[in-house]
Amino acid sequence: MSADDATVAFLAEAGHLKNLPRAGWLLAGIRQPESVAEHSYRVGIIAYVIATLEGANADRAATLGLFHDVPEARTGDVPSVGKQHVTLQDPNDVAAVQTAGLPPGLAARIRGLVAEFEAKETIEAVCAKDADKLECLLQARAYQAAGNTLVQPWIDTMLAAVKTETGRRLAEAAASQPVDAWWHKIVASYGRPGTD
Amino acid sequence: MSADDATVAFLAEAGHLKNLPRAGWLLAGIRQPESVAEHSYRVGIIAYVIATLEGANADRAATLGLFHDVPEARTGDVPSVGKQHVTLQDPNDVAAVQTAGLPPGLAARIRGLVAEFEAKETIEAVCAKDADKLECLLQARAYQAAGNTLVQPWIDTMLAAVKTETGRRLAEAAASQPVDAWWHKIVASYGRPGTD
Amino acid sequence: MSADDATVAFLAEAGHLKNLPRAGWLLAGIRQPESVAEHSYRVGIIAYVIATLEGANADRAATLGLFHDVPEARTGDVPSVGKQHVTLQDPNDVAAVQTAGLPPGLAARIRGLVAEFEAKETIEAVCAKDADKLECLLQARAYQAAGNTLVQPWIDTMLAAVKTETGRRLAEAAASQPVDAWWHKIVASYGRPGTD
Amino acid sequence: MSADDATVAFLAEAGHLKNLPRAGWLLAGIRQPESVAEHSYRVGIIAYVIATLEGANADRAATLGLFHDVPEARTGDVPSVGKQHVTLQDPNDVAAVQTAGLPPGLAARIRGLVAEFEAKETIEAVCAKDADKLECLLQARAYQAAGNTLVQPWIDTMLAAVKTETGRRLAEAAASQPVDAWWHKIVASYGRPGTD
Amino acid sequence: MSADDATVAFLAEAGHLKNLPRAGWLLAGIRQPESVAEHSYRVGIIAYVIATLEGANADRAATLGLFHDVPEARTGDVPSVGKQHVTLQDPNDVAAVQTAGLPPGLAARIRGLVAEFEAKETIEAVCAKDADKLECLLQARAYQAAGNTLVQPWIDTMLAAVKTETGRRLAEAAASQPVDAWWHKIVASYGRPGTD
Amino acid sequence: MSADDATVAFLAEAGHLKNLPRAGWLLAGIRQPESVAEHSYRVGIIAYVIATLEGANADRAATLGLFHDVPEARTGDVPSVGKQHVTLQDPNDVAAVQTAGLPPGLAARIRGLVAEFEAKETIEAVCAKDADKLECLLQARAYQAAGNTLVQPWIDTMLAAVKTETGRRLAEAAASQPVDAWWHKIVASYGRPGTD
Question: Where does the HD/PDEase domain lie (chains A, B, C, D, E, F) (predicted)?
Fold first, then answer.
């Protein structure tokens, strides 16, 4: 397989996260929940926002958030009820296998993203980890507003897990803000919430 | 609305891309296609890869790709058949409204991401634009393998639209590589493709 | 393209409304909502009922309701949050383009349906417009019963928007009637609500 | 139950067709097919077109098409494999029960729609029946283009079942026209089929 | 058709229950509910459990539960609102047709399963019938927890319908136990309910 | 937790297989594939058929097939691409934990089912294992007929994996029989394949 072919195969593999449902939501009885890719998208967005407000390298934090679940393309998203029954290889080792055929410089860069996220030592990694939690909290709030009654534990746990000052403030706001706050005012200004 | 509340509302708005189907695939008769968020996730991944191989700032390119469709949370994803009937506000103006309540520094940063992507002047923006095309090509290939017979035009157009040398090489590889290449060999090594 | 081919192409285009989710429900966090075609179906039914009770031409009102969203096959269903950012061509102009290749008499008839609905001058058009609102109200009630907590504004707005005396009375009944009223009594008569 | 309440209950019942999958497509292995409501929507559209070209009352034909499956809200859509095992009450009798509580004039009108469609004696009913077949044919073509290999028998049967001269001509065109004909040319004029 | 071909055709027909939504949940406004196959799976599991606790032949009870809805592959799942309008052939007669081409011994065995279940005379059949009710109750509870507000009548009816002492005790427990009881404690032991 | 509560919790846990998509089909790009429960349902059916034809205890084989994936309620369905990265606890140990709170006799029986299936020593276990393969083969054929182009390897592997003489014969028939064979003849006898 040429380097180009290996690179395309890696991009196809990364695309598999579009097909993977987030396992926690399945436990909560949400039959067709968001994908791991959808989660990763907003983790990247949130990491950018937190890092900006924390004075860190926002582009780096966003990128860490974006890539942090790429190893799940191989392992799947193991649910919390499975932790005592399933042993996962270290994500760094999974990433090493996933990037084995890539041009060496590119492989090293991608492994570096996974390693930095997992090590939680740089401020950007801490921001991206917080983004991972805050994203989950926001999604739990959205599922609550859609009717689900089982996701409060996710909100409580995520609230307790964020580490940065910005993350804490945003998580608290997210835990109380109605999920339609962003569009409620816009729509009210038209006198109607619907569509034509 | 406090700055924190406004920031959370922006993150909720960004999450709306999870709910928006990509309009082009609906035209192709794919009833429950990927979301704009899923597309944006892989655009970010691909932008990182292209930028690395082009020697550009990969974190920046990934971030540009990740944010490039955030204005669609307001406008929706207008399909190509609608272009002659729909006039969209400039994405920069949409982003200005979307970020109006954010802490000023953060708002400026996010508007800067949209502006840089739209201007296509930096090498990172060019890489992210190429990633947008290549992502679409890869997804069209995946839908073809899933049976859809209508998406070849997407592949042809995207092949012609990439600009960087890396993008061109990867697009050509993507247009011919079987979509199961990434897992076919792994699975064959177990003597079976299925699951237990 | 022959007249027959153009007619079939128009029917295929009308079928695209089956693929288009109603954008308002996506805002409300309903990930796989009804299609525009499903909405149009019941708008036609309701228009027939209102027009009958108002003493208008019920067949005409039903037909106006049935066709009223056909221009959305081109433009998509622009959500209310997009109104300040998106300018849509006049539906009459969209319909003119959509029917351009049809046999002239047929094209004129279809354009006439769109024009009459948009002008809101005939009693049949007023009934069909009311049906559009009442259909949305009934669907919002159904989503509430399915658990969604965000759709009350749709109900309130639609209640205020109906114009005919019949529409007002039915909207008030719809806003308070449990959505299972139609089957609750039937099922109770069997001593059980389920299925064998 | 007041007349208004009974009318709203009827409209809720008519809405149940949104939830009913077309049973034939389930046989063909299409797991989440169109609903009966989506089918009925386009039957109405097609009936209007055929009746116009046949010189019949197009509004009436559209309305007949729109209402023709309302009895299925009670009976469900019995698949062809079930015909030898399931005996359905006459649709006129089902409609009589469905409309029992409505204002008498309205009930009579709706029963009249079902009766006229079933009797196949008026030219409008014949056009609506043809529309029912042609709609099925067009949908089968769409599922073929989406990859399904089992629906050719639907196309063949529907081709043979249409009765009017217009229906025959359109069915023949529909059986050979690519399903993307309506958007292919529009999109080509932009140099690309995708979305931005 | 050879005996092997007929046997495979029967297995394909049994697989059609994967495509059939349970009609009762559609009435309750659940757009993409469980399939009849999913229901049958757990009816088998529950029948095994009840029969074990009742001292009956658990393997037999499980098998009766597993096969009890196979006739629905032909007839569909007729909803309770349809009972007054639809006459179904006796399930034994449907099963006779379904198994007509099978090797005679196998056909007799499968008909025997349907006959035993329908006759409700053996303790194993009574356990399997109870399992059918309890499964429905458990699923209704799951849909309630997911937000649906219309399914309480299913719970009440199923509670009243179970016959065995074990079935009654389990139904009472099921009617009050939170649906997340099985995973709540496991997850709490990790300090968080989510997924990594 | 009382024994009844523990039993109900086990039944709720078994129901989680309804929510788990089969991981192999996700690899093949099938976005909303069958659930593990749907698979288990037909494994039970097929095990009954094979065991009957092999002269084994058919009720036992069906029950083994029905329960064989219950441990996946904890571990999830690990895809083949994950095997080198994920270590699963022995299914017997998982089942021991899953049944820990049940009445001891019931717990022992359920653990016995898992143990017998995993040991592959009894003829009933061998039949159930073959059923697991044949079910996968039949489903792969169904996805092929629905358009998917990536599942041939599943067919080939399953063909090679069945052990019993009956399993081999049926697998060969299944690999060549059109998936619509079971309904094609029935429907043709009505002169049309569709629905009314």
Answer: 32-146
Geometric angle at alpha carbon B2, from A192 and B5, rounded to 5°: 65
Model confidence pLDDT, tens digit, residues D100-158 = 999 999 999 999 999 999 999 999 999 999 999 999 999 999 999 999 999 999 999 99
- Subunits with 3+ C-beta pairs closer than 8 A to C: A, B, D, E
DSSP E71-102: THHHH----GGGTTTEEEPPHHHHHHHHTTTS
Give bridge partners of residue D87 from the DSSP assignment. Answer: E87
Cα angle at E78 between E76 and E84, to 5 degrees? 145
CB contact under 8 A, E23 and C192: no
Among candidates A71, A39, A58, A54, which has minimal Cα distance to B64? Answer: A58
Collect all residues with Cβ–Cβ distance below 8 Å to F113 and sequence separation of at least 6. F63, F64, F67, F68
Can you tell me the distance from the alpha carbon of D85 to that of C108, in angstroms, rounded to the nearest whole number? 47
H helix count then E strand count, chain D: 11, 1
Cα of first residue to Cα of last residue in chain F, in angstroms, is 52
- Per-residue CA distances from F85 to A37, A77, A92, A175, D1 (Å): 20, 12, 11, 36, 63
Q: Can you name the residues that pair with D86 across neighbouring β-strands?
A: E88
Q: What pLDDT shows up at residue E1?
A: 87
Amino acid at B130: D
Q: Is the CB of C42 inside 8 Å of chain D's CB atoms?
A: yes
Minimum Cα–Cα distance from A167: chain B residue: B4
A21 bridge partner residues: A35
- A189 — pLDDT class (breaks 50, 70, 90): low
The ipTM (two decimal places) reads 0.96
CA distance D108 to chain E (A): 20
CA-based end-to-end distance of chain C:
52
Q: If you count residue pairs, one on D and one on F, with CB atoms under 8 Å apart, how many are there?
A: 64
Distance, CA of E61 to CA of C71 (rounded, Å): 57
Give how far Cα B133 sits from Cα of B50, B64, B154, F128, Å.
12, 14, 9, 48
- Residue ranges per structural domain of chain C: 3-189
Nearest CB among B147, B184, B193 relative to F157 is that of B193
| CA nearest neighbour of C118 among C129, C133, C105, C131 | C129
Would you state the structure tokens that stand for residue C109, as one six-digit string? 């008839």
pLDDT at position E139, please? 98
What type of residue sits at position D160? Answer: A
Mutate which of A75, A80, A94 to disrupt the E interface (most E C-beta within 10 Å)? Answer: A80
Asked whether F141 and F155 are in contact (CB, 8 A), the reply is yes
E-proximal residues of D, 163-192, CB under 8 Å = none
Angle formed by the axes of helices D152-161 and D165-176, nearest 10°: 160
**Which residue in chain F is spatially nearest to D136 when comparing CA positions?**
F194
Identify each DSSP E strand in chain C by its residue range: 86-88
Q: Do chains D and A touch (3 or more CB pairs under 8 A)?
A: no
Average pLDDT, chain C: 95
Taking CA atoms, what residue in A is nearest to E178?
A: A150
E140-190: per-residue pLDDT in tens? 999 999 999 999 999 999 999 999 999 999 999 999 999 999 998 787 765
Calpha distance C16→C72 (Å, rounded):
9
> E3-189 adopts what CATH topology?
Hypothetical protein af1432 (1.10.3210)
pTM of the model: 0.97
F177 within 8 A of E5, measured Cβ to Cβ:
yes
Tell me what pLDDT residue D9 has: 98
Q: Which whole number is the average pLDDT over E122-134?
A: 98
* A177–B11 CB contact, under 8 Å: no
Q: CB neighbours of C189 closer than 8 A, spacing ≥ 6?
A: none
